[in-house]
Amino acid sequence: MVYGTNHPYGLIASEESVKKITLEKCTEYYKTFFKPNVAYLAIVGDITLEQAKPLIEKYFSAWQMGEVPKAKYMTPKAPAKTTVAIVDRPNAVQSTINVTYPVVLTPGSPDEIKVKLTNSILGGGTFRLFNNLREKHGWTYGAYSSLQSDKLIGKFNANAEVRNPVTDSSFTEILGEMNRIRSEAVPDDELNMVRNFMMGNFGRSLENPSTVANFAINTARYNLPKDYYSTYLTKLSALTSADVQLTAQKYIRPDNAYLLVVGKAEELTPKLKKFAKSGEVTYYDIEGKQYDPSKKLKPAPAGLTADQVVNKYIAAIGGAKALKKVKDVTINAGATMQGMPITLDLYYKAPDKMLMQVGSGAMVFAKQIYNAGKGISSSPMSGETKPIEGDELTGMKEQAMIFPEMYYSTLGYTVELLGIEEQKDKKQFYKVQINKGGDKKDTDYYDVETGLKMRTESKDQLTEFSDYKAVDGIMYPHAMTQNMGPQTINFVVSGVKLNSKLKDDFFEIK
């Protein structure tokens, strides 16, 4: 969105593009672009040039120089007017927000040090954006901005992660801070505080030899003045509040920005339209391709109903007659979370019993039991136990039926076929909405070809299913991916048992 698809910075690596890479292409790329006449070498340490030169000649003298192709690109420009865009994550309970646009700012520009000070005041640390969105309003853990220089094209970006209900308010505050630094002189005490912070960081960075090496390389690579870094602190200390305001007016551009949200479009889009000069919100998919949300779904074949799609699924996993013979199910799965192996054990007994247990090795972290309309949640490690109520209890009642799709009418649910959604791998899914009363809705995705359920989206969770295998004639997914907020867990099913005659007292609620 910022750079355009005809600029190298606008290209996005994907599974498909990575698959096209071959060893031959890597070799060709290396031979074409890796030449000593366009390379830089910096050595920092207890060594003299006389000592270093023989080593350089030994290891690099055989490296042949050669012409390296140079490409030219159109320079990306900021939008003529504020544009609002969204990437839809239907199950998201929080939003990732960005205010961003390309900036023409090359390394070593006379404005670069002014820009660094201006951005630091705005959001380069725990300053204005952070104090506003976190300290004043409590909407986020952190809000920051960056204003990067680059040989081809720089970029401004202000970002935060906030709850859905305050997404539009957060944009209002970010844009307000951008306008404030343009229109109001920064008080001297604030200017001095941020400047001292920057000077301290610069001084500490010199303790790292790699920083000194980068300074040398940058000086050569970008043709910087020889004293660029040695006079950095002097130039920084000389900047005034007027310098900051003029720099902000040149580079901080709230009226020429992209406002990008990754979040729940259904909830957020109506509130975001007010920020767009056009009054419209642009939609992008996860690969950065723009699309019309009204045309994202293709119509299902004429006459096809949601009930028929659900019945095809029931037939695909074994058929209603076989499913009714399943009286209990045990599922054992494992995953790794933050480097620690965890286990998930699920036990179901029709029509109204369920137990879920999460742990690691011999430890049990959490345990939930549902039995005939009642549920409890316990933590054996802490000894805490509390009742399960509301929507969570309703969800466990549904799961205890083992194959709830067969009992939607009994549960009082209605189903609606929304259309056909094509995924990035060209697979097509029937999108079926399950209406559970009021505003309670889940969405299931069924493979058009196989009839198998591949994904379920609820208010707070997204679960994907794959690797279906037959167990006593019934098809079960042996891989499940769960997304709960920012957390993604990939479960691999190690075992499924049917009709093992689980005892009722196994599900007893004490």
Architecture overview:
- The chain is α+β, with helices and mostly antiparallel strands.
- The chain has three domains: 53 residues, no CATH class; 213 residues, Cytochrome Bc1 Complex, Chain A, domain 1, CATH 3.30.830.10; 211 residues, Lipoprotein localisation LolA/LolB/LppX (outer membrane lipoprotein receptor (LolB), chain A, Clam).
- 30% of the residues lie in helices and 30% in strands.
- The chain is built from 15 helices and 21 strands.
- The strands form two sheets. The protein has a 14-stranded antiparallel beta sheet, covered by helices on one side. Strands 3-4-2-5-1-6-7 form a seven-stranded mixed beta sheet.
- Strand 15 and strand 16 form a beta hairpin.
- Helix 5 packs antiparallel against helix 6.
- The longest helix has 18 residues.
- The radius of gyration is 29 Å and the shape is elongated.
- The protein starts with 14 loop residues before the first helix and ends in a 12-residue tail after the last strand.
Enumerate how many helices there are, as a single number.
15
Helix content: 25-40%
- CATH superfamily label of the largest domain: Metalloenzyme, LuxS/M16 peptidase-like
Number of domains: 3
Strand numbers in spatial order across the main sheet: 8-15-16-17-18-19-20-21-9-10-11-12-13-14
The parts where pLDDT drops under 50 for at least 5 residues are none
Would you identify the CATH architecture of the largest domain?
2-Layer Sandwich
Approximately how much beta-strand content do the residues carry? 25-35%
Principal-axes shape call: elongated
Radius of gyration: 29 Å
Number of strands: 21
CATH top level class name of the largest domain: Alpha Beta
**SSE-based structural type:** alpha+beta
CATH fold name of the largest domain: Cytochrome Bc1 Complex, Chain A, domain 1
Task: Tell me the major beta sheet.
Answer: 14 strands, antiparallel
Termini separation: 56 Å
Mean pLDDT: 92
